Amino acid sequence: MIHFENVTKVYPTQKRAALENVSIDVEKGEFVFLVGPSGSGKSTFLRLVLKEEKPTKGRVHVAGKDLARLSNWKVPHLRRRIGCVFQDFRLLPNKNVFENVAFALEVIGKPRRFIRKVVPEVVELVGLEGKSNRMPDELSGGEQQRVAIARAFVNRPQILLADEPTGNIDPATSIGIMKVLDRINRTGTTVVMATHDAAIVDSMRKRVIELEEGVVVRDQTRGVYGQAY
Ligand SMILES: Nc1ncnc2c1ncn2[C@@H]1O[C@H](COP(=O)(O)OP(=O)(O)OP(=O)(O)O)[C@@H](O)[C@H]1O
């Protein structure tokens, strides 16, 4: 689903590579944690998957497409297949839960009848049934993140990228967020989550890819946050 082949990324203003000769395969339906210290290249990896950045060297394939050969006008189509969740929720403050989730479908031209059917399903999937009319400022941080996940998933993307999704959420609430991501993964969606949250990584026992200064230093199935040896 995501295939990196000897990918190096050097930002124009930087001497050191943000990613250095990275080769990674993420299969359809996998759940992968991307860990590593600040500045190790996790966000750069996610940006390359979205074609927000281009590799300096090497190849990136996403959902069977070689991104170097994907013309610019097809990039929005690629991004529709990829849901994104961030640390800072990024909800529209003047829209309620239903409208925030519905907006993701409105902008890609889905019919109103379809939106009215699928939005409540996804709101329920993330555990927010009964809260569709709440405004973001009437929700806890954990609930706001659930809305952001619902919005990212409502179009049933093949891939869900999450950059520090529990970064602004307390540990107990984070467990609920991880249950939602796990549920989404079980529908067949590939999930890649960048995180510093050791407790979460240790409790989930999923594949762990560790970056250090842009280099993959560990790739472990059913891994933990720190070195397991
Ligand atoms: N747009 C940019 N221009 C120049 N350098 C950048 C840019 N984005 C990231 N970098 C550099 O690339 C390296 C990797 O950064 P990246 O954001 O991918 O790390 P990260 O692992 O996601 O860090 P964090 O955990 O703090 O989010 C860092 O040295 C960073 O300073």
From TrEMBL:
<dbReference type="InterPro" id="IPR015854">
    <property type="entry name" value="ABC_transpr_LolD-like"/>
</dbReference>
<comment type="function">
    <text>Part of the ABC transporter FtsEX involved in cellular division. Has ATPase activity.</text>
</comment>
<dbReference type="GO" id="GO:0005524">
    <property type="term" value="F:ATP binding"/>
</dbReference>
<dbReference type="InterPro" id="IPR027417">
    <property type="entry name" value="P-loop_NTPase"/>
</dbReference>
<keyword id="KW-0067">ATP-binding</keyword>
<dbReference type="Pfam" id="PF00005">
    <property type="entry name" value="ABC_tran"/>
</dbReference>
<protein>
    <recommendedName>
        <fullName>Cell division ATP-binding protein FtsE</fullName>
    </recommendedName>
</protein>
<comment type="similarity">
    <text>Belongs to the ABC transporter superfamily.</text>
</comment>
<comment type="subunit">
    <text>Homodimer. Forms a membrane-associated complex with FtsX.</text>
</comment>
<dbReference type="InterPro" id="IPR003439">
    <property type="entry name" value="ABC_transporter-like_ATP-bd"/>
</dbReference>
<dbReference type="InterPro" id="IPR003593">
    <property type="entry name" value="AAA+_ATPase"/>
</dbReference>
<dbReference type="InterPro" id="IPR017871">
    <property type="entry name" value="ABC_transporter-like_CS"/>
</dbReference>
<keyword id="KW-0132">Cell division</keyword>
<keyword id="KW-0472">Membrane</keyword>
<dbReference type="GO" id="GO:0051301">
    <property type="term" value="P:cell division"/>
</dbReference>
<keyword id="KW-1003">Cell membrane</keyword>
<dbReference type="GO" id="GO:0005886">
    <property type="term" value="C:plasma membrane"/>
</dbReference>
<keyword id="KW-0547">Nucleotide-binding</keyword>
<keyword id="KW-0131">Cell cycle</keyword>
<dbReference type="GO" id="GO:0016887">
    <property type="term" value="F:ATP hydrolysis activity"/>
</dbReference>
<dbReference type="GO" id="GO:0022857">
    <property type="term" value="F:transmembrane transporter activity"/>
</dbReference>
<feature type="domain" description="ABC transporter">
    <location>
        <begin position="2"/>
        <end position="228"/>
    </location>
</feature>
<dbReference type="InterPro" id="IPR005286">
    <property type="entry name" value="Cell_div_FtsE"/>
</dbReference>
